From TrEMBL:
<dbReference type="GO" id="GO:0005886">
    <property type="term" value="C:plasma membrane"/>
</dbReference>
<keyword id="KW-0812">Transmembrane</keyword>
<comment type="similarity">
    <text>Belongs to the binding-protein-dependent transport system permease family.</text>
</comment>
<keyword id="KW-0813">Transport</keyword>
<feature type="transmembrane region" description="Helical">
    <location>
        <begin position="101"/>
        <end position="125"/>
    </location>
</feature>
<feature type="domain" description="ABC transmembrane type-1">
    <location>
        <begin position="66"/>
        <end position="254"/>
    </location>
</feature>
<protein>
    <submittedName>
        <fullName>Carbohydrate ABC transporter permease</fullName>
    </submittedName>
</protein>
<keyword id="KW-0472">Membrane</keyword>
<feature type="transmembrane region" description="Helical">
    <location>
        <begin position="12"/>
        <end position="30"/>
    </location>
</feature>
<dbReference type="InterPro" id="IPR035906">
    <property type="entry name" value="MetI-like_sf"/>
</dbReference>
<feature type="transmembrane region" description="Helical">
    <location>
        <begin position="137"/>
        <end position="155"/>
    </location>
</feature>
<dbReference type="Pfam" id="PF00528">
    <property type="entry name" value="BPD_transp_1"/>
</dbReference>
<feature type="transmembrane region" description="Helical">
    <location>
        <begin position="236"/>
        <end position="255"/>
    </location>
</feature>
<dbReference type="InterPro" id="IPR000515">
    <property type="entry name" value="MetI-like"/>
</dbReference>
<dbReference type="GO" id="GO:0055085">
    <property type="term" value="P:transmembrane transport"/>
</dbReference>
<keyword id="KW-1133">Transmembrane helix</keyword>
<keyword id="KW-1003">Cell membrane</keyword>
Length: 270
C-alpha cells in the first residue's frame, strides 16, 4: 500500500512538473493559430487558422534564416562528434606525456564563463575576415569542453578487457575505436547530439555579435527582428517561436532514449 502511494505521489509530481513545460508551448501553438481579430480570445477549433505560418514564410526572410541555422547547427554538430569523441577517447584510453595536463586544461575551460571569451574570439574572427560568414559562426565551436568530459567519462566506463581481447585478435587501436568502442557508445553519442544541437540551435549571443547582415542571420537572431516588427501581433511572434522550437522537440524525441541510457551508465565501471 505504501509503495502504491509513493508511486502515485511520484507520478503526480512528475505530471505537475511537466505542465510547467507543456503549457507554455501549448499556449504558443494556440496563439500562433489565431487570426488578428481573435488575439487574446478563447475560440473554437473551427476558428483556428494556419495563415500566420504562410504570412511569416512569405513576408519575411525566415526561410533563409532557417537554412543558415540548419547549416551552422549541422556543421557544429558534425565537428563536435568528430573532435570531441576522438579527443575523449585519447584522454580515456591512450597513454602519452601531458595527457593529465590536457585534461586539466579542458576542465579549466569549463569553468571560464562563455561571455569572457566573446571579445577575444571576436577579435580573431575580425582579423581573419570571417564576419558575416559560416566560418565565423561554426569554427569557434567545433570543440566543446563539456562534451569531451562527458564522452571521456563514458569511455572510462567501458571495460578494458574488450579492448585487450581485440588487441589479442590483432585489431589496431583505430579498428578497436570504430568496431568496438563506437557501437557501445550510442547512448553517449545520442546525448552529445542533444546537447550540441540544442545549444547551437538556440544560440543567440554569438550570432547577434558576429552578424550584421540579415542574409546571414540565424533563426534566433532573425526572429528577434520579427518580434520588434510584429510586437503588436503576438500571433505572428508565437508562430516564429513554434517554428524555432519544433526541431528541438523532434531531435529530443529521437534521441531521448540515448540520453536516459547515457545518464544511467556513465560513471559505472565494468
Amino acid at each position: 500500500m505504501n509503495n502504491n502511494k509513493t508511486q502515485w505521489l511520484r507520478y503526480t509530481l512528475l505530471t505537475l512538473c511537466s505542465l510547467f513545460f507543456v503549457v507554455p508551448f501549448g499556449y504558443a501553438i494556440y496563439t500562433s493559430l489565431l487570426s488578428k481579430a481573435d488575439i487574446g480570445k478563447l475560440v473554437s477549433i473551427s476558428r483556428l487558422t494556419l495563415s500566420n505560418y504562410s504570412d511569416i514564410l512569405l513576408n519575411s526572410d525566415i526561410r533563409i534564416w532557417y537554412m543558415n541555422s540548419i547549416i551552422v547547427t549541422l556543421g557544429i554538430l558534425v565537428g563536435n562528434l568528430l573532435i570531441n569523441t576522438t579527443a575523449a577517447y585519447s584522454l580515456a584510453r591512450l597513454k602519452y606525456p601531458g595527457r593529465g595536463v590536457v585534461f586539466f586544461l579542458i576542465v579549466g575551460m569549463m569553468m571560464v564563463p562563455y561571455q569572457v571569451t566573446i571579445i577575444p574570439i571576436y577579435s580573431m574572427i575580425v582579423k581573419l575576415g570571417w564576419l558575416n560568414s559560416y566560418e565565423g559562426l561554426i569554427l569557434p565551436f567545433l570543440f566543446q569542453g563539456f562534451l569531451v568530459f562527458l564522452m571521456r567519462q563514458f569511455f572510462l566506463s567501458i571495460p578494458k578487457e574488450l579492448e585487450e581481447a581485440a588487441e589479442v585478435d590483432g585489431v589496431t587501436k583505430i579498428g578497436t575505436f570504430f568496431r568496438i568502442i563506437l557501437p557501445l557508445s550510442k547512448g553517449a553519442i545520442g546525448t552529445q547530439i542533444i546537447f550540441s544541437f540544442t545549444g547551437t540551435w538556440n544560440s543567440f549571443v554569438w550570432p547577434v555579435t558576429l552578424v550584421n547582415d540579415s542574409r546571414w542571420y540565424v533563426l534566433t537572431v532573425g526572429l528577434n527582428t520579427l518580434k520588434n516588427r510584429y510586437f503588436e501581433w503576438p500571433n505572428l511572434t508565437m508562430t516564429g517561436v513554434v517554428l524555432l522550437t519544433l526541431p528541438i522537440i523532434i531531435v529530443f524525441l529521437i534521441f531521448q532514449r540515448n540520453l536516459v541510457q547515457s545518464i544511467a551508465t556513465t560513471g559505472l565501471k565494468g
